[in-house]
Amino acid sequence: MKSYRAEVVGSLLRPDYLKRARLDVAADRISIKQFKKIEDRAVDEAIALQQSSGLDIVTDGEMRRSGFAGPLIDYFEGFESLGLETVRWHTRGRELIHLPVPFTVTGKLHRRRSLAAEEFTYARARAQLPLKVTLPSPLVLGLAWSPVFSVEAYPDPFDLFTDAATILRDEIAELASLGCEYIQIDAPEVACLVDPMTRCEVYEARGISSERLVREGVDLLNELADAPGVTFAIHLCRGNNAGHWMSEGGYEVISKQVFGRLTNYSILMLEYDDERSGSFAALADVPSDKIVVLGLISTKTDELEATETLTSRFEQASRYFPREQLAISTQCGFASVAAGNPIQPATQAAKLRLVAELAGRLFG
Questions:
Q1: pTM for the complete prediction?
Q2: Which of 61, 267, 285, 328 is placed for a possible disulfide with 233 were both Cys, Cβ 3.0 to 4.6 Å?
Q3: What is the Cα 328 distance to its own chain's centre?
Q4: Cα 21 to the center of its chain, rounded Å
Q5: Which alpha helices (DSSP H) does the chain contain, by range?
Q6: 219 Cβ partners below 8 Å, 6+ apart?
Q7: In the CATH scheme, what is the code of domain 16-363?
Q8: Domain ranges of the chain
């Protein structure tokens, strides 16, 4: 199993010129061809930034997506932008706010084309380092399932997840056929279940069983990770929306139920940037054949972490899981939604360098 010590989660801050271009193409002020050239420029810059930072692996920065779930939303039928449903989020000031869900499932899912294939084939020709593709978990569509507006198409939300998983399996097969060797599934909804309030308010109150999510849902995720020659990672964080988070609490709430069921994943990417993440004790529940990527460096704050503090936290983690099977990354992407987190581009670059420098210090 290939191990990358200095890892990257996925998304990078979208440059302002790309944000403007997305508005311009939507308003027909520029052509699709012009927009694609602007996207290409942003991807080129994202790859160059990661390579110059000293990371061991790169992504395309998710520049072509409206958000991290783009491969399940951006080129699909079955969604409407109703803006009637909201989900609560925590702010850095420890307040709770309710933000609208941008898309609601109102019909059966149908894919018009593959976004991930476009991302990979373009980035493959430009990356000098190993290239990773990120895909969203099918369970992430739980936030887009409405007990009012979605039930005609999907009376049971797990039927929606099954349809989404079928589509993602096709995406994975296509990526594998194009030469992709590393795929990461982003599954924040699983780790968000560590918080009883999230279980109750976000899922149970809307008719989605949290117990089914950690059983049937996790099994569905495990079935995704099946393609010859492809290494699979799963990223489990507590939500990331412009620096806000959905849940807080330690992985030990779900670790015994979840970690052992993810048999097809070689790599677990776990969020451990601050007190929201709880202790490292849950690492003792990770099967011995895995790599664990510790997300020690925050993408939610513009402050740069001290190397000594990060080293200390790494040493704490290594008491529960073998250090030779650990790696380092940021705790999440820098722009899970297109607006991005409240971080300056210069700080983003500094944090990516810090990932590489810390990995070099710890592993040589």
A1: 0.95
A2: 267
A3: 16
A4: 24
A5: 16-26, 32-53, 115-124, 157-177, 188-191, 196-197, 210-212, 218-224, 255-258, 307-317, 345-363
A6: 261
A7: 3.20.20.210
A8: 16-363
